[in-house]
Amino acid sequence: QVQLVESGGGSVQAGGSLRLSCAASGDIGSYCMGWFRQAAGGEREGVASRFNTGTTRYIDSVAGRFTVSVENTKNIVYLQMNSVTPEDAGIYYCAASTSCNFITWPFSSIYNYWGQGTQVTVSS
User: Are the CB atoms for 50 and 71 separated by under 8 Å?
Assistant: First the structure.
């Protein structure tokens, strides 16, 4: 079992940057790590994922602006958010899956472990 704790959320102006962190309680080297977000009144959507092979995937709206990375020695997953827009606001969740692929990574149902979320607010 893996416990995940997100941090790094806060308020940022549109066009600014923010880095979210997700600290895992154990070795995440074999997991597919995902970042999800949920806007107020909206559905939870997959934003980015890093497969255990090192491959990364992003939804179109954040591609080129967000970067997911893993610091394996510390079992920390990062989401670097650049050029943020008001549409990027929401609660961001980190999740771990024992298996994902190019098709399944955005679906929350395949993730086994979740963090509690961290709030991101974007002011225009």
Answer: no
Q: Which residue has the tokens 């999800």?
A: 36
Q: Judge contact between 105 and 34, C-beta under 8 A.
A: yes
Rounded CA-CA distance 37/57 in Å is: 15
What amino acid is encoded at 23 in this protein? A
In whole angstroms, give the CA distance from residue 109 to residue 121. 26
For tokens 């510390």, the residue is: 74
Q: What is the pLDDT of residues 5-53, one digit of tens each?
A: 999 999 999 999 999 999 999 999 999 999 999 999 999 999 999 999 9
Backbone phi, psi, residue 13, to 5°: -80, 150
Nearby residues of 23 by Cβ (< 8 Å), 6 or more positions away: 4, 5, 7, 74, 75, 76
CB 95 within 8 A of CB 117: no
Which token pair is 5?
């704790």
- Return phi, psi of residue 19, to 5°: -120, 120
φ/ψ region of 102 (left if φ > 0, alpha if ψ in -120 to 50, else beta) reads: alpha
